[in-house]
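Input set for joint prediction.
Command: fold jointly, output tokens.
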Amino acid sequence: MTPLAAHLSHTAAWALSATSRPGALQLELEEIAVAVVISAAIFELVRRKRLMERYAILWLLAGATVLVLSLAQGAIQSVAHDAGVTYAPSALFAIAFLFVLVMLVQFSMTISRLSDQNTALAQRIALLQQRLEAEHPGANGNGAAEEPASTESALSGPTDPA
Amino acid sequence: MKRRLAIVPAYNEAGAVGTTVAGIRRSAPDFDVLVVDDGSSDATGERASAAGATVLRLPFNLGIGGAMQAGYIYARENGYEVAVQVDGDGQHDPRFIHELLARLCGEPGLNMVTGSRFLDPSSEGYRSSAARRVGIRLFSRVVSLITRRRVSDPTSGFRMTDRRGIMLFARDYPHDYPEIEAILLMHAHRLNSCEIPVVMRPRTSGTSAISSTQSVYYMVKVLLAVFVALFRTRPTATPEPEPSAAGAPGTRSEEPPAAVVERAS
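tokens >
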């Protein structure tokens, strides 16, 4: 507790001397809370197997970075100072925003890959179905004729009255 | 005899696909007809089947690119030497199929022949709306500039490819609005294509795949694709030989070891 208290008082002193922000301590606590909540939520999703570890890593990294930077105010202040950012917490959020950008690009790449794989699967299903029907006209003719007919009636049903 | 295939992509074209299939079988009886039913909700598949076509039923709508690629994969796997794309909406007159074929077979080293609406300025027939012609002319300039060869109708889907074209398109085909990109893909793989004049008809049923609001997206998307394609390295080799050509057989060969590992663990 002592290092944290010392750290907090150091932050407060810096805040008062630099820009005199009464909300600096509260903001820091909020940052810690956000980081903890994000990390806990991601951990829980992975535990329930709702989120693959592969995609959890970036999220956890983002949460950890926010946590580390909000605890180590000295670090973020020096980073902010070097980057020419007068208000240190906004440097923190800028870093978090970069993480979000990286994640979004990763998602777009994932969607593109899944979309390609989805197309290949659909094509393969159509080719296999055609081959199956060609090789077993009697046995599969019934099944194949029934299935499209049922989907068709399901699809044309709502459109006919409209 | 060389095996030839007419690929007819059709999405909700129940009203026209039967006529199209019958027309191809009448005008080009040496061609097998494959209709790719792109997830239609109407009776497109049944009508095509009744008209005597082989039907590939895609489980959901993939768009023209995915549908055509399915057709090219079918052509590759069934050993076709020539494939021609004929749209299911009746715009492409199957009587020109043999003119495309004559040009493709008559000129050694030619891999693709496209039917162009604009090559013969005196000819009549359907030439799309005025607004679209402006766009087509722009793309015509761009594509001609890149390929260093006159391409008067880059958006025409009425095109015939040889075996090498089939192999290329089965492995890699542009997703949506594929015609322009397909020409550049051919060019990138150092395959040769040319145009012959054809007369097109207005569509007999259905609506165009591209609405007016989508045409802006079309322009931007295709221009982006064309621009990005300029920065891809051009492969010097021809499309790969048959066994390794497709992604699907490659992944299939990787499956058994994975299954063994799973069973062992």
